[in-house]
Specification:
alpha/beta, seven-stranded parallel β-sheet, 12 helices, 41% helix, globular
Length: 335
C-alpha cells in the first residue's frame, strides 16, 4: 500500500528526484509528464477517475466528423487564437456562449479570432448555435500529431529516473509515447504560429497534453499565452502547484482568476507562475446569472415545490469524471 495521496506523491518526486534533468534535445519533459504521473497514480491508489474507454463505431464516426469541423476557417487571417472546450458553453439568448470568454471575443472582435474548440468526445455545435463562425476542432491537431508521432524518434536523457518511478510505485506510464506526441503537437503548432503570427493566445485550461504543447509552442515563439481560470484552483490542485523550478515556457505567462483568494496560492514556494502575473477579473457567467438571468416558469415552479417539501436544500456541483461515484455517494448519504 502507498500512504501518499496523488498530490503528495508528485510533491515527493519533485523534491527528492532530479526530474529537471530528464530531457529531450536539452528540453525538460517532466513539466508535462507530471500530469500523466499524477493521474496514473491517482487512478491506481487514490481515487479512480471514470473515463469512457469503450470504443464504438459511433464514437469513431464522431471523431472523424469533428476532425474537419470548420476546416475552411483555416484559410483566413486571425490576430488572436482562443482555445476552449465544449464543456464551457452555456445557452444565453438562444445561442451557445463560452462562460469564460464570450466577453473577450466580443471585445477583440469575432472576425479577428480563430476559435479552437475541444469537443470532448461530443459533436461540435451547429454553426447557427455557435458563439462564432470561426471555429475549428482541436481533433484536427490531435489527429495530425498522432500520425506524426508514429514516425518520430526521440532520445530521452536520464529516462532511468522515469523507469525508477514506474518501478518504485508499480506504475505503467508510457512516457515514451507521451513525449513523442507532445513534440509532434509542438511541431504542428509552431507551423500554425508561422501562418497566423497571432498577437496573443488565450486558453481556458493549460494542463492537458495538447494545451501544454500550445503553451510551450507559442511561448517559445515569443507569443504571450494567457489562461482563464475555468474551475477550482487551490493549494491542492496539482496542475497549479509546482514544487521545483522548471522552464517557464511550459506554463502560461499570465493567469486570469476569479478573485484574490485564488491569487493568494501563488507564493514564492509555488513555481507555477509569478504572483504579479496572476490577475483577478471576476467571473463573466456568474455576473450574468446574478444580474441578467431569468429562470423559466417551469424551473421556478420546480424549486417552489421543493421548498415546500424541504426545510433545507443542498446543491452539489459535479463533473463527468467523478459523476457516477458522486451520485452513488449522494444516494447513500440521502438514505
Amino acid at each position: 500500500a502507498y500512504p501518499l495521496n496523488a498530490f503528495n506523491f508528485i510533491k515527493q518526486i519533485e523534491t527528492s528526484l532530479d526530474v529537471s534533468s530528464i530531457t529531450v534535445n536539452g528540453v525538460e519533459i517532466w513539466p508535462f509528464l507530471r500530469n500523466a504521473y499524477f493521474f496514473g497514480y491517482k487512478n491506481k491508489y487514490d481515487f479512480e477517475i471514470s473515463r469512457e474507454k469503450e470504443i464504438t463505431l459511433t464514437k469513431v464516426g464522431i471523431l472523424f466528423r469533428n476532425i474537419f469541423h470548420g476546416f475552411s476557417n483555416f484559410f483566413k487571417h486571425y490576430d488572436f487564437i482562443i482555445l476552449s472546450n465544449i464543456g464551457e458553453n452555456r445557452i444565453i439568448n438562444g445561442k451557445y456562449s463560452n462562460k469564460l470568454m464570450t466577453d473577450l471575443i466580443s471585445e477583440l472582435g469575432v472576425k479577428r479570432i480563430l476559435y479552437i474548440e475541444n469537443p470532448a468526445g461530443k459533436k461540435h455545435h451547429r454553426k447557427k448555435y455557435s458563439l462564432t463562425k470561426h471555429v475549428v476542432s482541436s481533433n484536427f491537431f490531435v489527429f495530425l500529431s498522432y500520425l506524426l508521432s508514429l514516425t518520430k524518434f526521440i532520445e530521452i536523457k536520464n529516462k532511468k529516473i522515469l523507469k525508477k518511478i514506474n518501478y518504485d510505485y508499480n506504475l505503467n506510464i508510457d512516457y515514451f509515447s507521451i513525449t513523442k506526441l507532445f513534440f509532434s503537437y509542438v511541431f504542428i503548432l509552431k507551423l500554425l504560429n508561422r501562418i497566423y503570427k497571432p498577437e496573443k493566445i488565450f486558453l481556458s485550461q493549460y494542463y492537458s497534453l495538447f494545451h501544454q504543447a500550445v503553451i510551450y509552442a507559442f511561448n517559445t515563439s515569443g507569443v504571450n499565452t494567457i489562461e482563464f481560470q475555468h474551475g477550482i484552483m487551490n493549494d491542492q490542485h496539482i496542475a497549479y502547484n509546482v514544487f521545483k523550478k522548471f522552464n517557464d515556457d511550459f506554463f502560461p505567462k499570465y493567469l486570469l482568476v476569479f478573485g484574490d483568494k485564488v491569487k493568494s496560492i501563488f507564493t514564492e514556494e509555488n513555481y507555477f507562475i509569478k504572483n504579479d502575473n496572476v490577475i483577478s477579473i471576476g467571473n463573466m457567467y456568474l455576473n450574468y446569472i446574478n444580474y441578467n438571468y431569468i429562470s423559466s416558469n417551469e424551473t421556478q415552479k420546480k424549486f417552489k415545490s421543493l421548498r415546500l417539501k424541504h426545510n433545507k436544500i443542498v446543491a452539489v456541483s459535479s463533473q463527468m469524471t467523478i459523476e457516477d461515484k458522486l451520485i452513488n455517494f449522494l444516494k447513500n448519504v440521502a438514505k
